[in-house]
């Protein structure tokens, strides 16, 4: 299959089979995962919006590292941070490298209810593969639930050049707000946690430069990355 050469053709090709899971399909996915067995308390590893907006109760949180995967803006967002016609991008955990994030320990008596909410949040279109992965922390290695990118889905995107990535993040806007705001919130939360992501920092610098140019009257910008907006408590993650 010939790889699309323009951003427009890439968006068109990726959206051909986009659909959300039905409630029955999502529940079946969760049931299949739980059927493999759960520990009493469980750990959940966050690398994107879960770092700054977990939206569930937890007993403990730790900085953690997952090996074999890296944080990447590799998931199309056609609802929460974009539209079907002009999708945004949100973070997925793609194969290769390593990723630092935040791990949360959930009490056994809350696991069932919180997993229900997590599946609504993270698995609206089955773009992720939920896995148990080892996470290294300062207090030792833990086994955590991690939502990894399914490379077989049309929602997965790779091979974007710098200009294409920048254009998508700048222009997209969904029901939860601008894609640029989502990227900025994640970058700020990672820095506050002492996590440094060079690729993300470089993207923020590019967004900041273009926002400054826009302020000087050169061109419009979707969101000003130099100014953090108040993040409302939302029921689902940015997809």
TrEMBL record:
E.C. no: 4.3.2.7
UniProt keyword annotation of Lyase present: yes
Enzyme class: lyase
Annotated InterPro entries: ChaC, GGCT-like, GGCT-like_sf
SUPFAM superfamilies (UniProt xref): Gamma-glutamyl cyclotransferase-like
Keyword Lyase attached: yes
Keyword list, A-Z: Lyase
GO biological-process terms attached to the record: glutathione catabolic process
One Pfam family in the UniProt entry: ChaC
Any one GO MF annotation of this record: glutathione specific gamma-glutamylcyclotransferase activity
Residue ranges of the region described as Disordered: 211-239
Record's GO cellular component terms: cytoplasm
Name of the molecule in the record: glutathione-specific gamma-glutamylcyclotransferase
Source species of the chain: Eoetvoesiella caeni
